[in-house]
Structures are given as C-alpha cells and as structure tokens.
Amino acid sequence: MIDVTIIPVLEDNYAYLLLSQDGLTAVVDPGEAGPIIDYLEANALTLDYILNTHHHGDHTAGNAALKKKYGSTVLGPEKERGRIPVLDRGLSEGEVFSFGQEEMKIMETPGHTLGAICFYFPDSHCLFTGDTLFLMGCGRLFEGTPAQMYQSLKKITALPDDVLIYCGHEYTLEATDFCLSIEPDNEALKKRQKDIRVLDQQKKPTVPATLRIEKDTNVFLRAKTLEQFTEYREKRNVF
Ligand code: ZN
Ligand code: FE
Fold this sequence. Notes:
With 239 residues, this protein is an alpha/beta fold. Helices cover 34% and strands 25% of the residues.
C-alpha cells in the first residue's frame, strides 16, 4: 500500500506526496516546489520521483527546482514530451511502472490536454486524475474534443468502485452547486453537498472521494450520451 499526503499548492491546486512501503517517495503535480520541500524536510525525506499528469504550469512548475535539489526522476506523458519541464521518462497508455513494490499503471485520458494521463495504483486503490476528473466535475476542454473527454471518463468509470480519486484542484464546493442545478432531486447529491459544506467550513480538503460516490453524484459521469455530456460541459463553462 502507498501512503498519500495531500499538499496544497498555489491557489487551489493539490500536489500529493506518495510514500511506498519500501520507502520510496514521489510527488504528483508539484505546481510549486516550496511546500513540497517544506514537507520533505519536516519529515526527513528526499524525493525519488516527480509525476506529472499533464503539461500545465500549475502542475509542473516545481519540477526543475525539485529535480535539482533531490535528483528526482521526472515522469510524465510521452505525448507531452517537450512541454513538460525536465522530463526524464515519457509514459504511455497501459505502461506499468514499478514504484518500489507497488505497480503504477498509466491511463491516457485526453480531453483537458491531448496528452493527459492518470496514474493508477491498483493495489492501493488510488487514482491521480490531474485535471481530467475533478470531484463532481471534469476539466475544461482546452485541447481535446468532448468525445475524447467522454471516452476518457468512461475509462475511469470502468475501474473498481472503491478506487479513491485524488484530483488536481479543490473545486468541489462550486461543483456541487453545478451538479445540483442539473439534478436537483438527486438525494445522494443533496447529502453530499452537506458533507462538502462541513469540510469547507473546517477548511479541510474534500479529496479523496471514492469512484462510487462520484458515479452517484458527478453529472459528467452520469451523462448517458455524448450529447448530454457535451451539453453539461458547455453549461459548466458559463456557470
Ligand atoms: Zn490543467
Ligand atoms: Fe490545473
């Protein structure tokens, strides 16, 4: 099993510090280096790997400083080679990377960007989705088509229900309001809004959430057709 620590960075981004049972460390999407270094120093750790879900600066701007300080190996989407700072190894669909004894599987999930990937740890039931899937939301289509994103989300929903979703931003409170505007009578959604409001008041992260609860409440996963998905994505852009 891997141990996951949430490290808030920038305005509303989340980086994640992963610790394997055999003592290896990795950070997912370091949008800045400072908070990651602070955490590593406070816990007397170094950094073996840097994992990037996609090329956007709020997910990669910490790469160079962290690699310089710790000699970390930078892993990211092969399809975004050239756009990921100091990338060492590009990863593609279906590839399995050994993070110590832990398997990490690569899922290509284009839509938000064309090369976006998710990192899946089957034994630990964890999925790092970057800006592809948010809690009760999905990423904006900066590069891909609605059809690409719809297929990418379908790939994610094929994973087991108990998989924990760790996404790239804290957008959940506003996302709840949007989902309720689409499905005002969804009881699971109404209950979840109460839970999210409590977390928000306590200034606590809303991540992670199980894929099960996402399937019950995230309208982008609940869209029955590509047309419906496209309509929701367009409405969300102006919500
Ligand atoms: Zn992004
Ligand atoms: Fe982002």
